[in-house]
Every structure is written in C-alpha cells, then in structure tokens.
C-alpha cells in the first residue's frame, strides 16, 4: 500500500489539518487531485462511475 | 384574503392553468406548517395533468471543462480556479455510457458539452456519437451544447436529436449576477429556435444562488412563458473555486416549496430533479419531492459530481408505486 500524501478533494497535505469535510465531499464527487503528487487529475464521470488519471501515477476507478 | 392553496386548487388542479408570478411569490412565502398541504396539492396536480409515470434520464459530459463562459455556479468554466480539467470523451465511451443508462430503464440519454456554443468539431463528434449510439442502443437522445444558430438547430434536428436542453439558469432580473459573458436574451433566443424546430425544449435553471423569493417566482414564470416540454430543476451545489463556492446549501424546506411552486406554475410540464438534490434534500427529501410535483429524475451521476446510486432511485420509485415511463421513439 502506498501512503496517501495529499487530499484527493482539496489537494492539500493530508497531515495538514482535518479533511473530514473533504472525506464527506468525496462521497458525492470523484477525487480531483492525485494523492501521491497533488497534480490535478483528468477526471471523467460516467452515469454509473468515474475514472481519474494522473499522468505519472496512473488511473483510479470508482469502486 | 383567500388562501393561495385554495386558489391553486381551483385554478391549477381544476382548470390546468398555472399560477402567475405574484401567486407564486405567495406560495414561496407560505409557512412551514402549510408545506405538507402544499406538496400534497402539487402531487395531485402532477398526477392529474401528467399521470403517474416518472421519466428517467441519464446524462454524460462529452466535453468537460475549459468553457469560456463565466456562469458563477459552474466548475467547468475556464475562468475560475476550479480543479476540473478539460477532457473529451471518445465515441466508444459515449456508447458505453448510453448502454449503462439504458440498462436502468431510462428512456432519455443527454449528451452535454461545456461550451458557449458548438463549433464544427463538436457538431461532427455529436453526429458520430448519435450514429454510434443509435446502432447499438434503444434510447432517445437529447443534447445540451450551449447557444445555437438556426443552422445548428436544423442540423441537430436532422441528426435525430429529439430534445435539446438549454436552461435559463436564473430569472431575467438576476441573470447579470450569475453570468456576464452572455445575456439572458441570447439564451432565450436559442430556446425559441429549439421550440420552433419541433425538437422538444428542455429548459430549467438553478435555485439557491442568492436570488430573492420574488426572483425565484420570476424564473418559474419566465420558464412557464416558454412552455418547455421539460424543466430540470437544480439546487446550487457550491463548487470550490467558483464565485458561488462559499454560498450556503439551500434549506430543504425551501427546496421543497420551490418544487411545489414550479409544479403549480407549470402543471403539464415534465419537472425533473437535476443536480444538487443529494445535498439539499437527502434521501427523505428526495422522496418528498417525488410526492410534491416532481415527475422525472436524472439517475446515476451528473457531469462532474456524483448522484445517488441509480438503484436507490429506482427502488424508491418502485416503493412509491410510480411506474417508469417506457420508451416511445419519436423518430
Ligand atoms: S456555459 Fe455551461 S459549461 Fe460554460 S460556464 Fe456556463 S454553465 Fe458552465
Ligand atoms: Zn482535503
Ligand atoms: Zn500523481
């Protein structure tokens, strides 16, 4: 498992303050920032899911 | 003074005549104690003039982000520091999305692009997309591609687009506080051209953007004047980085009063739950809205945000014994 360094919702460091609201937000929207390098990802939302791609760290899918 | 609900019962339920702007202000000002009665009346109106069926639709973003316009609620404007990046969907992905949508029992699939209006590349992509979908999926295709020229209206009609979405967004008197890169009149023009073309017009807006109750009533009245086939009703979901990003989420009771008011303004229109209901209304409120004037839903996800699972909405409709409208191809 890789350690999550950045918040997928707000892009700030996960160690930097609480991200409770971000975690809640992520139930109703896909992540926008790569949790490894905080680059803005290319996100596509489909009717039943989403994909989010970082040019360095690859693609995430909805579960 | 005669009670507005009594007036609405006679005028809207009895005769199918929508309430005026002034009457809608009274509805929107009605006290919380009257809310249950208001919703019950709006539901009666919907069942009498539209029937029991609920229309189900899925939407997909063909071109996301990077829009030159500055609609202050929108995360897809290229003018704000929103984290949404620009991207195009390819045709196989588009067909896949149409298939996923059809599997839910939806009869409508709306292809959306974040643009001021379509250019040749977008029109070509839409044409190819529609042909590919029609070859594999049985579903009505709608489009939402911004402001159109008459030639583009004709082209879309010829492609077999049966419904076109173009929202007023907000009341005429509040529009300048929401958008500065184009005018209310420009939007209105596109709506008229679409309506006159024979395509079905889908035209709604957003509430909860800081407009007054009077302006909310004004939006409903202006929509009613256009007589759209469908009105999608969005509740502001404040998006990070946009000018409206720090606004409060609208109170659930105000949202429900708005739903009922829109139904009483437009008794015979398809009134659709669009974005923001998950935040504003939650599960309980979603149910109340379906029993308060709503007769159409967007299932699954939106363009850049996620909705409730489609199964949650379909189970709710089954629970409420509301039949899902079946496909009648209008080609
Ligand atoms: S025109 Fe549409 S995509 Fe562009 S900023 Fe306005 S709402 Fe967003
Ligand atoms: Zn965060
Ligand atoms: Zn990365």
From TrEMBL, chain B:
The protein's assembly and partners: Homodimer.
Alphabetized GO MF terms: 2 iron, 2 sulfur cluster binding; 4 iron, 4 sulfur cluster binding; biotin synthase activity; iron ion binding
Cofactor: [2Fe-2S] cluster; [4Fe-4S] cluster
Binding site for [4Fe-4S] cluster: 67, 71, 74
SMART domains the record matches: BATS, Elp3
Assigned EC number: 2.8.1.6
Record family assignment: Belongs to the radical SAM superfamily. Biotin synthase family.
Catalytic activity: (4R,5S)-dethiobiotin + (sulfur carrier)-SH + 2 reduced [2Fe-2S]-[ferredoxin] + 2 S-adenosyl-L-methionine = (sulfur carrier)-H + biotin + 2 5'-deoxyadenosine + 2 L-methionine + 2 oxidized [2Fe-2S]-[ferredoxin]
Keywords: 2Fe-2S, 4Fe-4S, Biotin biosynthesis, Iron, Iron-sulfur, Metal-binding, S-adenosyl-L-methionine, Transferase
Function of the molecule: Catalyzes the conversion of dethiobiotin (DTB) to biotin by the insertion of a sulfur atom into dethiobiotin via a radical-based mechanism.
Any GO BP: biotin biosynthetic process
Cofactor note: Binds 1 [2Fe-2S] cluster. The cluster is coordinated with 3 cysteines and 1 arginine.
Keyword Transferase (UniProt): yes
Chain residues that bind [2Fe-2S] cluster: 110, 202, 272
Keyword S-adenosyl-L-methionine: yes
Pfam families: BATS, Radical_SAM
This protein's name: Biotin synthase
Location of the Radical SAM core domain: 52-277
Enzyme class: transferase
Sections of the chain in a coiled coil: none
Pathway: Cofactor biosynthesis; biotin biosynthesis; biotin from 7,8-diaminononanoate: step 2/2
